[in-house]
Each structure stands twice: as C-alpha cells, then as structure tokens.
Queue: 3 jobs
Job 1
Amino acid sequence: MSLFGDWNASLDQLKDRVGEWVTQGSGMLASMGAGQKNRDRGARSWDDSQENEAGASREDFASRVQEVHMHLNLSVRPILISGGANFSIAKDILREAYADEPVFRWLLGNVNPKKDPASYQQKKDLLLDWMVDWRVSSCQSFSHCLAIPTASAQVSPGTSPPELRGCALVTSPASKTEMHSFMSLLAYGASPAKPPAALGTACASRFAALDAMCRARDRLASASPHWYVHMLGISPKHQGKGMGRMLMRIISALADQDAYPVHLEVSGSRNRAYFEQCGFRTMETIDVCSEDSPTLKICMMTRVPFPKLIELE
C-alpha cells in the first residue's frame, strides 16, 4: 500500500510542477495554436534554456572541483569530460576497468572461457560495450564525468583528447533539474533495456533481475538528496597507484561541502573492502537472481558526510 501511495503522491507532485511550468509561460504550450513557426521557436527556446542550465551546472561543478583540488593538494589536476571523442575515451577506460567485475561474469551466464575461449571473449566484449554504453547514456544528461589525466591538462575545443588514468561518473543533488527528475520518474513506467540477443536468454533474464533491483533502489533513494557514484574505473596499467582513491577523495570532499551522503553499489568482497577503506559502510546486502542463475550479492554502500572537514573560504 505504501508503494502505491508514494507513486500517487509523486504523480500529484508532477501535476503541480507541470502546472507551474505552464503558468510560468515557457512559451512551448502557449505557442501550440500560433502555428508551426512559433512552436519551433518555443522548442528552440526551451532547448537553449536547458543547454544553458546544463552549461552553468558544468561550470559550477568544475569550479568546485578545482577548489577541492587545491584544498586537498592533489598531485594531479582532475578534469571534466563531456561529449565527442573525449567521452569515448572515458567509455574505453570503463570497459577496461570493468572487464573482470563479478557482475559481468554473472551476467554472461554459463559461458565457459576454457571450453570456448573465442566465443567467451566475443560475448564478453559485446556485453561490456553494450553495458557501459547503456549505463552512461542513461545518466549522462544529469551527471558529471570526473577524470584523472596522465598529465595536467584541460579539455577544450580543438585540442586532442587527453589520455586518462581513470574516471568516475557521478551525480550530485544540484545536477538534476526539475525536468530531469520529471523524466526520471516517467522512465519507471518505460520498458526496461534489453541486452543484445546474441548474448542469449540467460543474460537477458539476469539483466532484467538486476535492472529491477536498480530501479527500486533509484526510486527509494530519490526521497532524500545525496551524491551517487554510477561507475568508477581505473585503467589497468594505472591500477594500484591511488587513482581510484584520489577520485573518491574529491567526490567525498564535494559531498562534505553539501553535507550530503554518497551512495554506490558494488559486488564482490574485494570491491566492498576497497570502498570501506574509502569511508563507506554497507547499509544493505541484496540477493539478485533469476530462474536459472546463482545469487549475485549487491552491497548498497553509503558514506556519511563530515561537513567540518572541508569548509573552504
């Protein structure tokens, strides 16, 4: 009963917000009867407004990251990644970093790497490509990609993409506009994503179970402001050098400024131990399984804020 009650309450809030948008005169609805030209003009105005808002959010986030960088006296200056070839490099880093993660081995199902190594590698590459693309595209519009370059660099138009040591895809409470929240809520009623058919029905069944868990987590976690780490990956040749901890120190410091917690999920005891060393604690362990799969344990982890540790002038 509480779930349906929350859902109805959310719908009521959405109706109120839509009503506010209409009465505030964004120009989109008011221009519906004024011809196609006015509609196009209103749509462009809305798109420009959203783009400007996203740009302002990126600039504000970049400014805060640089303040934290100086406060923590980090040896490498972090950068923000956005669009084009730069984001393709970030995706490549994530694919490399997640290649041996327990969740991907679980999703592949009963594919035996010893009996048929060629088929296993083909399916593994296909799953990694699809999973990273799906995960990034599902949150890219309201998230930031924080990266550690191999040398101090700035990403700007006309420059060659930097080589990265690692990156993290993170969402802050300020990243989500009302429109993003509106679209996220509508997404709960949309059809879930499906992995490529070539990966088989077992992979599809397991992904459906994992996706259902993620949707439930998203809906429950949205009740209070928080930072969320979608993905964090370090290039294999730079692992073990403190790059992951550097990214987590930056994210944790930013969250401390806001006095908000940081949430993430991991699978595997090694990953859990790593984030425990970064100040996270396991709040809940969820068993995910489909009809023909072993159980995958997902740890829901949270780092509580320490506001007094990162007060910047």
Note: The radius of gyration is 21 Å.
Job 2
Amino acid sequence: MGTKENLRVVDSFLEALDARDWDRYFGLLGDDLEYYHPSMKRPSRGVAAHQRKLDLHVDSFSDYKIDVLRRFGQGDWVCAEWTSMTSEVVKGKRRRVRFDFCGVFKITNGRISRLYEYVDRAGVPV
C-alpha cells in the first residue's frame, strides 16, 4: 500500500475511535499490534492487551470528542496529531479538559501493526 492508502487507514481508525465504532476500530488493528504509551514500562503486544488498556480510558472519559489537526506519512509510517476534549471528575466536580495527542503508526497489509501514542497533559489543570 502507498502513503495515501495508509493515511486513509489512520483516518478511519481515528474516526472509529471518535464514533466509538469498536468493530471498525479493532478491525483496523493487526493481530500482532505493538502498542506503546509513555505510561507503560514496555509496549503491549496483541489486540487483546490493547483493548484492556483502551477500556480503562474509555470508561474514565466517556464523553470525549476528537479533532484531528494534521497527519502526514512516508511509506508504511503515518504520524497524526489530534486533540481530545472530554470531562473528568476531580474531588466531586466535573471539569472540561483537553488532551493533545500524537500517534506514530506503522501500517502493514492495510492494518495498524505499530502504534506509538504520546499525550501532553501539561494543559490539564490539577
């Protein structure tokens, strides 16, 4: 697949995440998915491990809305930057927060085989 097709895979992935279309979301992940987030000691392997991590976040931030800012690619690799607006409850009070994300994706045979996801929490009030 070329860069244009790989960009479409990432677009579809982010659209599925935003829509909470889990069938489409997990259908875009390769069986051998390697997922990394800075909160992890080491990358997880496989879709089931990623699903456990995702379930924690989706349950905590159930009203998120994604806005894709930009994405670009070269060959099998795609980089995307997006924000997620959501609310969280802190000390009994609900507040709106924004998370800034950057994801580095490797696409293999039309599916995401590597996802390295980084989040900037500097703008989140504590």
Note: The beta strands are 29-36, 44-45, 65-74, 77-90, 93-108, 111-120.
Job 3
Amino acid sequence: MAKMTPKKRNQLFKQFIEAYEKSAGNISVSCKAIGISRNCFYEWRKNYPEFEESFIESEESLIDIVETKLMKNINEGKTTEIIFFLKTKAKHRGYIETTENINHDVSKYKGKTKEELKQRLDELRRKHK
C-alpha cells in the first residue's frame, strides 16, 4: 500500500476494526473489506500502537460475546460445553486430560516378523486400556 496521510490511515484503522467485528473476528475478510493485505494488517499491529490497542480491545469484546454464549449453553446443561469449561477453567481441581508417555527399548524388536510385532502391539494395547 502506498504512503498515506495519518488521517487516511486512521480512517482505515477504524474501518478495519468495524469490519473485524462485523466478520466475527475474521482477519482475511476484514482485510479484503478495506482493501489491504494480511501483511499490511500485521505491519499495522507492529508499527502503530494505537491500532494494536484498538485491535486487542475488539478481540476481547468478541471473546466476551463467545464466553457469554458458552455460559448460556452451560446453564442449559449442554455436556460438551460443561466439559470444555471444566477442562480449561478447573484444571486446578483435576479436570485435565493427561497423556502417558511410555518409552520402550525398540532394539529388542529388531529382526521380529510382522506377525510377532503385531502380536506385541496387541498385548500393549490390551495392557494400556
């Protein structure tokens, strides 16, 4: 984008924020709506603190809207939303998923047939159900 006056740039900043909110946070759609590239958007964020501040405020507003809808669904007893909330906000109470990492010495499987390897894999699967 060619050099522009501060007034024009501020108008584009405002137009972008409006497009961002209207598109529910879609950066590509917002860029297209005002005729800039995504690269320009990221440059603005990096180089213009007033734009970055407006963008963050807009993003936080969208998050507030989504959180309100999430809580509405939780209050309606929707299980998926309840589980999501607990996994993200109640980790300190044990609502977490864990992954167990098991390291095996694979050298002992060298030279085994496909059938022997399949059998061992089935044993491990049964053991860790």
Note: Helices lie at 6-22, 27-34, 38-47, 49-75, 79-89, 114-127.
